[in-house]
Structures are given as structure tokens and as C-alpha cells.
DNA sequence: ATGAAAGCGCTAACAT
DNA sequence: ATGTTAGCGCTTTCAT
């Protein structure tokens, strides 16, 4: 059909017919059938993203970043959820391949990559891991520099004059370990000793939430010499810690500085404005999207790509010097 | 092909060949091409959901509910975002139709339905509005009974013995107005007068956040007779209000009861466990998903469907009698 | 500048 | 119980 050519903007059509076609297309509210098109071209100009959970603000940022990057290049994004379940993740991968997505982006819930080794070959669709790298070798990965997260937070508190910096650790995951190791680096960068009593590990307590931060802080306050700076795995824990400190009569930030992580809009504005490390979800997503596009454009000839985004310090009242 | 029949579970295949085919399918990691299939059958067994924003916990619940309902019936769900923009919403609708989704579910950002009037006819794909009904006539809608939200919260506080119940109003949207009107109903149900001074309207202040709740509460505390119960548009506002009250020396719940709305896990566990109205996002989503399935199964012969889900009261310490 | 023919992967209907 | 034929809506190639 001539119509197909017009719609794809081929040159060899007279302006007259072009206008005539477009007019009729509008009238009929014609919407092309991508399925049919993909059957011929092998392209849908749509990519799929799998998230471990929906409604998580951080992941929402990542998704938004990917979306922007794709839209800029004329691609669309569709999202689905693995519900934090490896088996469902697997099913979703197949569903998206089945829908002929040009590329897959995954915030994986898997711990190892064994599973994917075989998967990658399934189709020429590139798979890009985002935000959460399963331990093991992975072809394409874009995420945050998690160690840097801990290092920057620690350096900031030290810069605020804190000699004794405490860390309220998060869960025993890859991310948790990296941030914790960044904390240690931050200390040694400034030739400060790592005091075991200041590294509060709340294992077993489950989620890194308000209560966990609160309890951890109480533990710290019982020491003979309290810390001068406190950093937490995430913002909610930091808020819990601040509340515990304030109830204990500690003045913030004069006597004690705090910094969280995640730059959660809500948590950072609860009474005491909380300094935080911005995880730059948007940027991670955008870079991942760009990579995916390059991948399909180059016919996958690119080898291996790893991108680490640098986190950003956001200063607020809780650590004002 | 015989293979096609095996994969679709047709009966007229011997167990021997069936097994042989399935084995080879596994080996080759064959994944069927839904695009091609849909071209023939007109079905993808996939539905599309458009959300105004990604990473919003409430909407995540709704999406999860839809997902469950669809999976139960062997359908898949893909999600995309309208970024709260009517034009993008329009583009996403077309993108999803283009992908041959069997039905569309939309948490719309539109205020009126004029826009959709034409749209509905575009294809036989049913469109179901979820959670947020644009004012005007809409064919299929599933959402929460927003007036009931306000009524139940109000009734609960009155049940706690509060004679003077204050309401910290939300934004001037359809939802905000309905909840507020529910508050009024709750009062009149119990033959209590509506005291204008207890209905705190914080127009202009922007988002219904912590600060807004805090400020609104301070306003209330300056009155000669303070309220005995306080309900807020959402949980964060309630938390802000509780903090303001506590800083003012008010004991919760002995002297003043509080209830929020949304049953936000995080906000409800910040120090003082906050009673809340659960918006039942999961259930709304599930019902919407069920409706969508019925829609496509019945070949759209169903006329008009409106479902209102009843919100649920969650009692916590902030309103313990 | 326009259109006719063929085929992408699949399945409904019909042989065998 | 298995295989054959035709066609879904589109695009690529090749006439005209």
C-alpha cells in the first residue's frame, strides 16, 4: 500500500497523496498494528522492564529514567512485575520475549547469574541488568556506585566536624555490604579508626524501617561516649534514629549530625530536614535506557558494558555545620 | 503444524508425540511469537495498564491487584506511565492498542471524559477506568467509595468518644471533595454539628504533606477549645499533625485521637502507630482485573459497570479508646 | 510516484 | 492422530 509508505515517512510519495492519506487516517482513527509490523521487520520499537515490586519510589524513578531515554529515541516502554519471585521473573522474561520486545531491562531479584547464562542466547534480544547486579558475571549492567554511597555520606559527616561517625547498617545483601564497606573506606580515607561499637548491625529485625533505626539509636545512646555523626542505610531508619536522639534530649544538628540515604521526599521532610545521599534513580534509568538503545541499534555487536552512576550528596539541616 | 496444537493443548494429539514435542521445545528454548498468534486470533491474552505516575505505593497496590486477577485467568499485564500528562496518556493508549492488548485499564489523569467519548469506539478493546473517575459519564469504572472513606474515619473517632472531630482537608480535587463530604455525613449521621473552625482547609499550600498537616494542627491548637479527634486527608498529614500536637504537650490518644488515610506502611509506623483507612488498592485492582476479563470473555456484550469498593478501618494506638 | 506479489509466524478449517 | 491450505496486517522488493 501507498499508505504504509506515508505512515513510515518514505520519500517517494507526492505531497498531495500524503496529505490525503493522513487526513483519512485521522478520520478513521487508524492505529497501525505493531504485531503485524514486527512480524515483517522483527522490531516493535518497544522495550520491556521487569521490576521486583511495583509502587516502590526508587524503582519508580529508575523506570521513569528509562522511559525518558526510550521516548527520546522513539521507543516505548512497558513494565511488569516479578513480585520478587525468581520463577515469576522467569515467566515475565518469556512473556516479554513473546511480545517481541526489542530489549529487556531487568531489576533482578536473582542472587546468582547461573540462571541467565542460558537465557541470554534465547533470542537476539539483549538483556540489561539495572540497579541490582546478581553476583556473578553479567554482560550488561547499569547501577549506582553503592560503595561510593557509604563513602560520601561518611566523608560528609567527617567534614561536618564529626570525629566519631556511627553507621546504622542495613540488611545483609549485596547492596547492604557495599554501602557498609564504603563507610569503612570513608573512615580510613580520613585516617579515622573503625570503632566496632559504632557500626550497629541490626540483624534479624527484618526490614530496615523506622523502628529499626530507632532501636539502633537507643543502643548507641547507651554508650558512655555517644557518636557525633550518624549515618543510616536509608532515610526511614535515619528518621527513626533522629526521633530516638531527640527524645533523649540530643540537639540536632548542634550535638549530633545525621544523614540518610535515598533522598526520599517524604522521609526527608518529616520535621527535621534530613540530609541524604541521592541514589540518582532517574540517571541510572536513563543510562540503562541509552545503553539498551545502543544495543539494538548496533545489532548487539557491542561486547560488555558496565556503568556505575555516582550518587549525589544532598545537604539539609540535619547535618548543617 | 502439530506443534502448534500441542502447545495450545488441543486434544487430538497422541501422548507420545505430545511428549516428544514438549521435550524438543524445552531443548530449543522455543518461545512462541505472540505477535504472530495475535495476528491470526485477534488475541494477545495481555492487557495494558496506564498509571499517572510510577513508584506510587497506592498505585502499586492497584497494579498488583490487577496483575493477580489477570494471572489467575491466564492473562498477563503490562504497565506504562502517562506521567500525569493528558497528551502522553493519549499516546500510551495508542501504543497499547497498537500492541494489540485485549483490554485497557486506565488510572486516568483526565478531568473530563469528553476526550474518551470518541476513543472508546476506536477498537473493540474495552477501556476500564480505575481508581480515578473523570467527571462525566464513563462506561466501566472500578474505584474506592471515597465518601465512605471520610464517613468511616469520622464515625470511628466519634465512636472513640470524640465530640469535637476536626478534619484536615486535602486538595480541591474530586477525591478531596468526596472525602470531605463523607466527613460531613459522618458528623450528621451522629447528629453532631459541622463546626467550620474544625474543618481546616489548607488551600494554596501545594502538596498534602507532613508540613501541611503540621501547620494545620498548629492552627487548630490555637483555638480556645481544641478538638478531641483529628482526621486527615492522608497518613503523612496525620503524622505531621500528631507531631505538632505532641510538641504542644498533647497526649495521644488520651487527650486527642488521630486517624489518617491510606494505611501507608511507613507513615503508620512512625513512632505513634497511626490508625488509618485502608484504601484497599489491591481489591480495587483485583475487581478491575476481573471486570476486564469478563469484558473480553463476553465479547464486550456487557453494558455498563460501576464498582465501588468499601474502604476498611485499621485501628492502631493513635485512636485506642 | 504508485502499486502488485510474496512472506514474516502462527492458527482455523479442512483433508487425510 | 497428523498434515495441508490459506490468510491475519504489514513491509520489502520489484514492476510499472
What does this structure look like?
Two copies of one chain form a homodimer. Chain A has 321 residues and is α/β, with parallel strands linked by helices. Chain A contains eleven helices and twelve strands. In chain A, the strands form three sheets. The first copy, chain A, has a six-stranded parallel β-sheet, sandwiched between helices. Chain A has a four-stranded parallel β-sheet with strand order 7-6-8-9. In chain A, helix 8 links the parallel strand 6 (165-168) and strand 7. In chain A, helix 4 runs parallel beside helix 11 (281-297), helix 7 (146-159) packs parallel to helix 8 (174-189) and helix 9 (210-221) crosses helix 10. The longest helix of chain A is centred in the C-terminal third of the chain and has 17 residues, at 281-297. Chain A is elongated, with a radius of gyration of 24 Å. The mean pLDDT of chain A is 91. The interface between A and B is large, with 55 and 55 residues. The structure holds a DNA duplex (16 and 16 nucleotides).
